[in-house]
Amino acid sequence: MGSLRIALAQLNLTVGDIQGNAQRILAAAEEARDRLRADLVVFPELSLTGYPPEDLVLRPGLWRQVQSALAEISQRVRGVELVVGYPRRHEGRLYNACSLIATGRIKASYHKQHLPNYSVFDEKRYFVPGAGAQVVEIQGSALALSICEDIWIAGTALQARDAGAQAIVNINASPFHLGKAAEREEVLKGACHESGLPIIYVNLVGGQDELVFDGGSTVLDADGTVRLRAPDFTEGIYPLDLDPGRPLSPRAGEVVPVSRAEPGIYQALVLGVRDYARKNGFRGAVLGLSGGIDSALTLAIAVDALGKDAVEAVLMPSRFSAEMSLTDAAEESRRLGVAYHTIPIEPAVRTFEESLGAVFAGRPRDTTEENIQARCRGVILMAFSNKTGKLVLTTGNKSEMAVGYATLYGDMAGGFAPLKDVPKTLVYRLAAWRNRIAPVIPQRVLDRPPSAELAPGQKDEDSLPPYAVLDPILERYIDDDQTPEEIVRAGFDPATVAKVVRMVDRNEYKRRQAAPGVRISQRAFGRDRRYPITSGYTEIL
Description:
- By secondary structure, the protein is of the alpha/beta class.
- It folds into two domains: about 5-260, Nitrilase/N-carbamoyl-D-aminoacid amidohydrolase, CATH 3.60.110.10; about 265-460, HUPs (Rossmann fold), CATH 3.40.50.
- The chain contains 17 helices and 19 strands.
- The N and C termini lie far apart (about 70 Å).
């Protein structure tokens, strides 16, 4: 018996595009067969439907399309075998499944045994768990099929070994968050040590709404040594040779380093913006450019995602905009090669103030007038989007979303929020990292105190604690679920903690109306954190 060649198909697939995904699968299979001389091609979890398909799996029409696509793949595939993931109805039950397809037929199927139902996952809403291992023979080698969460649960890899497997093939749709790649590899090493088997781990790549799948498909030998690691955030088909034996022995391939913190986060943001715009049919992106750090970083991400010709910036000065803000915004646009437009909002603001004059008579100016400015800008950007077919990118960050330091229907107006899960202090680190590639953001933007510029001399610290204080409190309260007492015991001022917690709790209604944005943490605002809008609960210090 000679060596077995497997191709790891790390593909970017689209949720719901059954026919398009099937064609991608077939094209990859033909490439792996003809160019790589592969015996087997392995595709990601739920590759036919994309992941997560959510309530699409409840649509009867989806099942007709899945069955039609499986039949086409089975009929057309020759000279190579495939492992394809899809939702499978079997004996009246719905499973997250994969099948081995070869020479016109489905040779074997496996049902995912462990269904994640935490964080961004809710697979128990749709699927029932499978039971037992499934070992298939490819060119005389015995491979156990498994799906994503199965490899995280102790005993599942041992089950595969006891069923006679010489290696485990694990297909995945595992989303990115900071530190996830290292966490995955520790889990895979544990499964190797438990079972004494090599593991072939294939992961999805691409953006799906707020989720980004980072690829990084990996092969480990029976001792847990990494023998192949595919690039993060990049599509590709990666060959692997396994020499015969019990267990099989993976030959060394290219081991691409795991992305470091800022580069990895930045790549995730770029991929999330690119796929959200591309898969939803937008012609490009537009954003309001203020001369501040958030919009500057968002502009750089948009250009890196979509190309300079597909991105436009709009400068919308008011009576409170500093001249340096306009100068810096224009300079950012020039450095990135982006077309920009200057549309003053003062005429629109004055019209609104005149229209509301009788209602507001005798009342002092307050945040109402500030919000009118932000909402005028939102109207301009949405009109630009309607006319051009370009996606409005909002520029708010996680710190602002957490405490409600944003205007509904104003700076929150838009279709996608690249920085929604990026704390303000991380915004600065990402901007500094991007400038090391090329200085696209003027240094003055990084050095200036942040300001919304909606009132004379306004600075963020007039309303908020310094971000160096605010962000660690938010991380403890939101990401780590610490109580106010625990945060205070960590050394933070009790009054500041109490203020921040109140702001977070009372602004759920704003966050619920915010645009989706890329998830980079383990507790993003969206699928991760589901709090009621109407609630009498308070955190007591």
